[in-house]
Design a protein that fits this description.
single chain; 89 residues; alpha+beta; three-stranded antiparallel sheet; 5 strands; 30% strand
Length: 89
């Protein structure tokens, strides 16, 4: 499902205008992004938790040349599904 399809489904569930659903989705993603940038976790009971985790440095391989290279440690966004979400799938 892409963003456009997701917005259409939101409209079906809420009977709100498409522009309003788009604004709500943008607000949702912006709020989560800002919280993660600030080092906060976003926990939605029953749905899941968005958080930032540290990815360790590792050795990788350049697919074009086959040459080994060092990949630096970095922070990456992560999501852990909540119990209700897991059980519904």
């Amino acid at each position: 499902m892409n963003k456009k399809q997701f917005i259409e489904r939101m409209v079906e569930h809420t009977d709100s205008p498409k522009a309003e659903a788009r604004n709500h989705l943008e607000a949702f993603t912006t709020t989560i992004t800002e919280a993660l940038q600030a080092g906060e976790e976003v926990q939605l009971p029953g749905f899941g938790k968005f958080y930032v985790r540290e990815q360790k440095a590792r050795e990788g391989k350049n697919p074009q040349t086959g040459k080994r290279m060092q990949i630096d440690a970095r922070k990456v966004p992560s999501f852990k599904a909540g119990k209700s979400l897991k059980e519904s799938v």
